[in-house]
Here is the input.
Amino acid sequence: MKGILVTGGCGFIGANFVRLLLERGYSNVAVLDKLTYAGRLENLSGVEVPVVIGDIGNLELLRYVCRAHGIDTIVNFAAETHVDQSIASPFIFTETNVRGTHVLLEVARELGLRFHQISTDEVYGTIPLGQHSLESDVLQPRSPYSASKAASDHLVQSYFVTYGLQTTTTRGSNNVGPYQFLEKVVPLFATNALLGLPLPVYGDGLQMRDYTHVSDHCTGILTVLERGAIGEIYNVGAGQEITNLEMLEVLLQTLEKPCSLIRHVADRAGHDRRYSVSVAKLEALGWKAQFSPRDAVAAAVKWYADHPDYWQPVRESSSFQAYYARQYAARLEGKS
Ligand code: NAD
Ligand code: TYD
Here is the structure.
């Protein structure tokens, strides 16, 4: 990997991954990011890499950027990523996650590049207790977000099979850690708790997620880039799940805030009850998660408590406040 283009590198996981690449001695790294509402240049503060502001759907731009920066590997983090947003406004998910990924694959094919796709455990759908998703399982996505990610996974595999493109894919579980946008549950609830606001738990709160520290996800991705088999897919996660109420218990204990902040509100439409991945295939490459879900949540929550300068401007922005009112006002009044 002599030149790595990280698309979506101004987002949560992409920015953490850029930092890891530089720490591990990869010096030719470039970022391409559209800076949607979820992308922030601040996520790369202190990091010296070229950042191109642009859309992964722009084939001409991608071709130019890859040539200009001597890119031989694309790692695609760029996506619309929030399930609730996909329920409210689904079309942009098809545009970026499906068409955008397709454009990147075409550029990789034309220029003979390695291509790594960042996917999600949500493509497997909701998983009954006692079962763990394997990479070979049939995909059963249930939200517009996960359906768009599953579609892009299929496109990636089709380029490997049809054109012999050098592809790999990782399917990560719910990440937590520094630089996560505040709409996702852990930073939202941590900052709500710090502000003394109620924590809107969808439904009974017994949904299960494998909360994984973003540093574990990033080392998993790098392991696959360095040692993964071409054409293969690898799950990445802590390999264990907790309920949302257990996640909340850790969050409130870490911040020393009372349980009285918890509000059960109307559930999310089509809410997946449980995700659970087997990470044996990735572990066989020598990788191991360092954080349990509880430790990952505690570390992430502490980071938000220690970095008010990072999240306060977002909370105060009119766009976030409009989103918060749209998503939660009626729910918190018990009207939906
Ligand atoms: P994020 O929303 O924080 O960041 C996404 C980034 O992509 C933003 O910087 C945004 O500006 C950029 N972007 C969006 N549309 C773009 C476009 N058309 N062209 C260029 N850039 C664009 O998301 P994240 O949580 O960092 O997720 C990154 C990737 O990891 C996504 O592909 C997501 O599906 C996947 N993933 C996320 C999680 C999670 O828990 N957050 C878990 C598993 C997989
Ligand atoms: P989220 O961070 O949106 O990730 P995903 O839907 O991709 O798993 O949500 C994580 C869990 O938290 C999920 O079960 C939904 C739940 N949740 C709430 O209970 N309330 C909220 O306000 C949010 C955003 C999520």
About this structure: The chain has a mean pLDDT of 98. The chain is about 45% helix and 15% strand. The longest strand covers residues 114-120.
